[in-house]
Specification:
With 253 residues, this protein is of the alpha/beta class. It has 9 helices and 9 strands. The structure holds nicotinamide-adenine-dinucleotide. The site of nicotinamide-adenine-dinucleotide has 31 residues, from helix 1, helix 4 and helix 7.
Length: 253
């Protein structure tokens, strides 16, 4: 799909991978709405790129409906959705103080998995009503999994489960939307240099980066954004989860 003039929604657009994707889509001519729990951050990126920055809790049905309606009022219904909003948490299933907190597990699933599904259902519902473009395409959805979906480390039970859910969601969604020409893919990033990672001490970042076979460094958010644009551009990419990790395979700890 050619992105020039197309309405796009990027969740988690105020930071990291989402902000880089918003910038890349805007530079390619898309009309971009950045949705984030952190409205100020989304607005700051929007101001820089000429898009729209909106408050949205992806885990909440009403909040997402309201944000999508505001984006559609400004740009028309979106044909592109990039799900980048997400949270990390670390806890053993049974830790020193006993079994893990169930609400903490549910929160990660609610934001990462249910949040991605929430936006997918709403944006796809809008795109289904639009005229097909060149090649019969009506829309493209890209969600963000993680290599943790395949190689979750000890302490990543909630995060890895949420990302494995995104992997499992990709094919049935692509199959369901295929007759309407809406493609669905996901990206499973390895280790990327985002505010999430930048919170770690420099030496920890360096040692994580050195564990990546090639290139031996953390990924750059722009490299994630380049893959999003490649997925949108290439009509044969559908129903697939693409690892973007420099051949990294995470160890148990
Ligand atoms: N950075 C990495 O190494 C890495 C690796 C694999 C996967 N990922 C995934 O990539 C995605 C983006 O991560 P990032 O590194 O850019 O993180 P980040 O923390 O820089 O950005 C995440 C953004 O999501 C927003 N957000 C959190 N909860 C939200 C909610 N309920 N509703 C709306 N917005 C919400 C935050 O405010 C933040 O702006 C996440 O899904 C993350 O799990 C990141």
């Amino acid at each position: 799909m050619k992105v020039q003039g197309i309405a796009a929604i990027v969740t988690g657009g105020g930071s990291g991978l989402g902000a880089a994707t918003g910038r890349a889509l805007a530079a390619a001519g898309a009309k971009v709405a950045l949705l984030d729990l952190n409205e100020e951050a989304a607005r700051a990126v929007a101001q820089e790129t000429g898009g729209l920055g909106l408050a949205c809790d992806v885990a909440d049905a009403r909040s997402a409906e309201a944000a999508i309606a505001r984006a559609a009022a400004a740009h028309g219904p979106a044909r592109i959705l990039v799900n980048c909003a997400g949270i990390v948490s670390g806890a053993r299933i049974v830790g020193r103080s006993g079994p893990a907190d169930l609400d903490a597990f549910a929160k990660v699933i609610q934001v990462n998995l249910i949040g991605s599904f929430n936006l997918m259902r709403l944006v796809a519902a809008g795109a289904l009503g639009l005229d097909p473009l060149e090649g019969g395409e009506r829309g493209v959805v890209v969600s963000t999994a993680s290599v943790a979906a395949y190689e979750g480390q000890i302490g990543q039970a909630a995060y890895a489960s949420s990302k494995a859910g995104i992997v499992g969601l990709t094919l049935p969604a692509a199959r369901e939307f295929a007759p309407a020409g809406i493609r669905v893919c996901a990206i499973a990033p390895g280790l990327f240099e985002t505010p999430m990672m930048q919170g770690l001490p420099r030496e920890v970042q360096d040692s994580l980066g050195a564990a990546v076979p090639f290139p031996p460094r953390l990924g750059r958010p722009e490299e994630y954004a380049r893959l999003v644009l490649a997925i949108i551009d290439n009509p044969m990419l559908n129903g697939e989860v693409i690892r973007l990790d420099g051949a990294l395979r995470m160890q148990a700890r």
